[in-house]
């Protein structure tokens, strides 16, 4: 847990979110600024700054995160979707607590190249 981390605050229930699912290792909620018709963030309860450091720190939680990301993508977007794990500022990451984006339906703007 990191006291000044936005997603840790959501994990702790201190900041409200439109929660889609909760499991032992994950919480998923709708993105506050959706970039597609379906835009869900899937977050490990464990604080690690990105997916690479999560994978190094705890492979079991990483597998749980990816499995839940796939389950939500199937449930929310009928098997046709994009999964995005922005890693690093230069790749567009703005919240440094690992998370996956589930994007489904029409994108609201083209992905940056
Ligand atoms: P990234 O740019 O990959 O770090 O993604 C961070 C995402 O978190 C962005 O798509 C934001 O719109 C989203 N976001 C920021 N604050 C909140 C919040 N309070 N609730 C839900 N989503 C948020
Ligand atoms: Zn955090």
Question: If classified by CATH, what would the architecture be?
Answer: 2-Layer Sandwich
- Our measurement of the CA-to-CA distance between the termini, rounded to an integer number of angstroms, reads 33 Å
> Overall mean pLDDT score?
96
Q: Output the CATH topology.
A: HIT family, subunit A
Q: How would you write the strand order of the largest sheet?
A: 1-2-3-5-4
Number of helices: 3
Low-confidence stretches are none
* Whole-number count of domains: 1
Question: Mind sketching the topology for me?
Answer:
Elements: H1 6-11, E1 19-22, E2 26-30, E3 36-44, H2 51-57, H3 59-77, E4 81-84, E5 100-107
Antiparallel strand pairs: 1-2, 2-3, 3-5, 4-5
Bound molecules: adenosine monophosphate (AMP) and zinc ion.
Zinc ion binds next to helix 1.
Write a structural description.
The structure is a single chain. This protein is an alpha+beta fold. It has one domain: HIT-like (HIT family, subunit A), CATH 3.30.428.10. Helix content is 28%, strand content 27%. The protein has three helices and five strands. It has a five-stranded antiparallel beta sheet with strand order 1-2-3-5-4, covered by helices on one side. Strand 1 and strand 2 (26-30) form a beta hairpin. Helix 2 crosses helix 3 (59-77). It is globular, with a radius of gyration of 13 Å. The termini are far apart. The site of adenosine monophosphate has 13 residues, from loops.
